[in-house]
Amino acid sequence: MSNDLPSLPLAFLPTPLHPLERLSRHLGGPSLSVKRDDLTGLAFGGNKARKLAYLLADAVAQRAEVLVTRGAVQSNHCRQTAAAAARCGLACVLVLKGEGEPAAAASGNLLLDQLLGAQIRWTEDADPEVVLEEVILALQQQGKRVYRIPYGGSNALGASAYAAAAFELLEQDTGFDHIVLASSSGGTQAGLVAGGRWGGFRGQILGVSVDQPQEALRTRIAEIASSIGPLLGRADVFSADEIQVTDRYRGGGYAVLGDLEREAIRLFARMEGILLDPVYTGRAAGAMLDLIASGQIGPDERVLFWHTGGTPALFAYADLLIDRPTV
Ligand SMILES: *Cc1c(COP(=O)(O)O)cnc(C)c1O
Questions:
Q1: pLDDT for res 1
Q2: Which atom of ligand 1 is nearest to the CA of 280?
Q3: Closest of 287, 272, 275, 51 to residue 181, by C-alpha
Q4: Is 246 in the pocket of ligand 1 (CB under 6 A)?
Q5: What residues does 91 pair with on adjacent strands?
Q6: What integer best gives the mean pLDDT of the chain?
Q7: Cα–Cα distance measured from residue 74 to residue 97, given in angstroms and rounded to the nearest whole number
Q8: Which of 68, 72, 119, 221 has a CB 3.0–4.6 Å from the CB of 186, allowing a cystine?
Q9: What's the CA-to-centroid distance between 141 and ligand 1, angstroms?
Q10: Residue 104 — pLDDT band, cuts 50, 70, 90?
Q11: Helix (H, G, I), strand (E, B) or coil at 21
């Protein structure tokens, strides 16, 4: 079974799935594996590459000239949108939240956005959605054909990529008891939930909310999941009750690095040579480790950590990740 909607070959698929042997042994179970969507390619990888493969097919079909989207300063979604635009020969305008930084201070995703040729518009104190509308209107007045990439790439079309990703996983391994992933705009989890149902996946799909309260996020994920079916000729509806999200690990809030994230990042790095990111996967892995330590995930279960990427942001958090210089 696959997703037959048109897509461009922007992501390297299938991504690898492999066991985390040293980490599993260190924890005394469960048996952990990782799905490497940090290796999708498209300017350092991540989950947005899969979504953009479908969104860009639509943009190109509509003969778009400029992509416009918005996000945080260290948005992985914006960085991969800029790369997708470059790949397809389109211009790209990113609306980023904040005041702007001197070019010399740009690091992580913000540096990459600029290398990839995106034009950046800072929101300063304005509502990002309002600034985005202004940018789109101004471009249209210049006669440009604009394609708006939704926030996080999470509309029905973008999320359909993760229904396809669920089928991809089920061809690699059907036997996981839990899938743990970071969830924010909800499209990744929505696609996995929909594809999981259609492909007969029986385990739990647990989203670790990085910012929103769980009720709001579950409702949003159910809405997105329900919107995918009609694109694929299916009428399935998903309700918030069947979406599993925890918001207990939001710590200091969005993009605030705490001990939970720092320790998970170090553990994955030192046990497995795998880099997590400070905002999403560090938090989701920290949550997974806590659920294991507290017995909510049992030692005899099989757990898949879905690595959604984000690693360029590590470089923007250097001073918070390193204790002190050592000789
Ligand atoms: C965007 C992002 C997520 C969240 O995916 P959503 O589909 O927005 O829920 C998780 N991890 C990383 C690294 C991301 O960039």
A1: 46
A2: 11
A3: 287
A4: no
A5: 66
A6: 96
A7: 9
A8: 221
A9: 33
A10: low
A11: helix
Specify burial of residue 276 (Cβ count, 10 A radius: 0-12, 13-18, 19+).
Answer: buried
Strand order of the sheet with strand 31-36? 17-19, 31-36, 302-307, 178-183, 204-209, 244-246
Which position has the token pair 């204790």? 323
Identity at 141, one-letter amino acid code = Q
Which two tokens mark 89?
């020969």
The residue written with tokens 């089928």 in the block is 167
pLDDT for 175-200, tens place per residue? 999 999 999 999 999 999 999 999 99
Collapse the DSSP code of 31 into the 3-class scheme (helix H, G, I; strand E, B; otherwise coil) and give the result. Answer: strand
Residue 2 confidence (pLDDT): 56
Order of strands across the sheet that contains 91-96: 119-122, 91-96, 66-71, 146-148
Please identify every residue annotated as catalytic. 75
pLDDT band, very low/low/confident/very high, at 327 (cuts 50, 70, 90): low
Q: What is the pLDDT of residues 124-138, one digit of tens each?
A: 999 999 999 999 999
Q: Is 313 in the pocket of ligand 1 (CB under 6 A)?
A: no
- Backbone dihedral angles phi then psi of residue 292, each to the nearest 5 degrees: -70, -45
